[in-house]
Structures are given as structure tokens and as C-alpha cells.
Design goal:
The protein is α+β, with helices and mostly antiparallel strands. Helix content is about 40%, strand content about 20%. It contains ten helices and eleven strands.
Length: about 325
């Protein structure tokens, strides 16, 4: 089955060397994700001739493709991290708090940190796009994003995430865009500030998509975001995360986003992109000897291609077409 259009298929490019047996494949996945006990559902199942294991490490967040090529069941305690498995094909069945959870395309299974869990059936056709969150990181970010401590209200996390809602669909698209970089597992490893920014975006999107609003947030007055606006204009090239901006404002991420949308009609990160684009456009006009890549890096864009896409969307032309 083909992968969605916003990501590279896990079957594209070179495959890792095929495992000699299921145990070897299990060890490789354990090294990348979690120690576990894997058992083929059929003892007569042959050694898998095809599997998928690719990851991109963003520090506190790891994303990757995992597929076994055989029907298996897995026992895991998820030590020190939460895991979200998004099936791209096939079916994933597990035992949740309230019974069996079956996820296919359009739904993701959420596994809690340090909680014994049984994946009762990961079928041979199932390849998942997994997102692993360090538990200390997710708990800490939850305080900024939701203005609550996720460690004390872990019941807010669902066993399954419906990916068709607006917030979940936006988060899923972000995960998919980063999945296109899985052919380069060391990408961003020399750019810790970029790693943190991307990890923050993934975490914030997940929390807002999976944890319902408790109705306590109300739009604040414009003065409550003036400090954030000033900071973005003063240092637009900084690798800001929305959690950092929320801390600066003294609000939760959700309330900050509501406030920005209420008064400015956009999110804080969208506003930051517009500030960066204004600075970059001035450089394109006033510094003809600078390359597009130089200007993109100077103003905090993670790549020249992403800068070009944002520039084209804003100004209707490519940055290389200087005026």
C-alpha cells in the first residue's frame, strides 16, 4: 500500500540488511525503541524476508517506521517514554484500559510510559509510523502546553487518537513531513537547537490533539502577548519553540495560541515565520551577494527549501527571483 502523499514511503531507498531470524529483528527494534518480548503468533511462520526499521532522532522525540513482515504479539513496559503508533497499512491490536484497541489508517494507538502493555496482534501487513516521547520531556511540556501536569492527569491521554480531527490531522501532517527525512537518520544531529524546535512542535501538536480543552482558557488582553511579540521581533532567528513563548508570556501554550488567534488571526509560530520572511526579503533586496541558503539560515529557517516554500506562499514568487 502506498504511503500518504506527505511523506516518503518506508519501502523507498535501500532496506537495512535482512535479519537472519525474528530474534535479530527484535533486538534491532529494541535498540531503537524499547526492550520487549516478541513472539510470532504462528510458530511455523518463516523468517521474514522483508521488514522496515528507520528512525530519526530529535533528542527527546524519536520518529520512525517499523514493520515486522510477520504476524507477532509484543509485550512491553514502555520504560521512560510514551509511544504513539500510526498504522500506514494493516492492523494493530492491543489491550487498552477499557478493552481491545484496534488501529488502522486514520487512527493511532497511544501507549503510556512505564505501563505493562500487550500488543496482541501486529499483523504482517502492518507498518507503523511511530513517535516516541521521552516521558520527562512530555510531562514537562504538558505543564506549558496545557497548564497542567500530565504525570498527575495521565488519564487525559486516550488509548487511541482519531487522526481525522482538525488538530490531529495537522499533527499527523507534521509527523509525515519529518518522516520524509528518515533516509538520513543523522539529520539535524549537529543542530541541537533545530532538534529541540522540531521536538517541541511535535510535542505541542500531540498534546493539543490528544488532550481535550477543559474550558478554563479565555482570550487575554493584547498586553499579555506584547512581550512575546517584542521578543520575536528582537530575535527572530532564534530557534523558538511555542513552549518557550508560552513561558515568556506566563500563559499555557493553548491559551497563548488562543490569544494570538483572537487578536492577530494566526498562531505564534505563524507570526514568527512572517517576521522572518520580512527580514529575509529585505536581505534578498539589499544583499545581492548573499545566497538564498545563507539568508535562510540567517533568519532561522531549517532549510533553504522550506524557506523557499514559505516565501513563495507569502509573496507568490521564488526567493531566487530577486528584484
Amino acid at each position: 500500500m502506498a504511503a500518504p502523499p506527505d511523506e516518503t514511503s518506508p519501502d523507498s531507498g535501500e532496506e537495512p540488511e535482512a535479519p537472519r531470524d525474528v530474534d535479530e529483528l527484535s533486538r534491532a527494534v529494541a535498540d531503537a525503541y524499547f526492550p520487549h518480548n516478541l513472539v510470532p503468533r504462528d510458530a511455523r511462520t518463516p523468517v521474514p524476508t522483508h521488514h522496515t526499521l528507520r528512525t530519526l532522532d530529535l533528542g527527546p522525540v524519536l520518529i520512525g517506521y517499523v514493520g515486522w513482515g510477520v504476524d507477532v504479539q509484543i509485550e512491553c513496559d514502555y520504560p521512560g517514554a510514551y509511544e504513539v503508533n500510526i498504522p500506514l497499512s494493516g492492523r494493530l491490536e492491543s489491550r487498552g484500559r477499557h478493552g481491545t484497541v484496534t488501529s488502522e489508517q486514520g487512527r493511532a494507538t497511544v501507549f503510556r510510559a512505564d505501563t505493562p502493555t500487550l500488543i496482541s496482534h501486529w499483523d504482517a501487513e502492518c507498518t507503523v509510523l511511530g513517535v516516541k516521547f521521552d516521558s520527562a520531556w512530555l510531562d514537562r511540556e504538558a505543564e506549558h502546553v496545557l497548564d497542567r501536569d500530565l504525570a498527575r492527569v495521565s488519564g487525559l491521554l486516550p488509548d487511541q487518537l482519531n487522526l481525522t480531527t482538525v488538530a490531529a490531522r495537522e499533527w499527523r501532517r507534521l509527523v509525515g513531513s519529518l518522516a520524509s527525512d528518515l533516509s538520513e537518520p543523522g539529520l539535524f544531529s549537529s543542530l541541537p537547537s533545530v532538534q529541540e524546535q522540531l521536538a517541541g512542535a511535535l510535542t505541542t501538536g500531540f498534546l493539543l490533539a490528544s488532550c481535550p480543552d477543559d474550558g478554563r482558557s479565555t482570550p487575554a488582553q493584547p498586553k499579555s502577548i506584547s512581550k512575546v511579540i517584542d521578543a520575536l521581533h528582537d530575535d527572530p532567528a532564534r530557534a523558538w519553540t511555542v513552549a518557550q513563548l508560552a513561558m515568556l508570556s506566563g500563559m499555557s501554550v493553548r491559551r497563548l495560541q488562543e490569544t494570538f488567534r483572537h487578536w492577530l488571526g494566526c498562531s505564534p509560530m505563524d507570526y514568527l515565520v512572517q517576521v522572518r520572511l520580512q527580514q529575509a526579503q529585505a536581505d534578498l533586496q539589499n544583499n545581492p551577494s548573499d545566497t538564498v541558503s545563507d539568508i535562510a539560515a540567517r533568519w532561522g529557517f531549517s532549510s533553504a527549501s522550506r524557506f523557499a516554500a514559505a516565501y513563495r506562499q507569502r509573496y507568490g514568487d521564488a526567493p531566487s527571483n530577486r528584484r
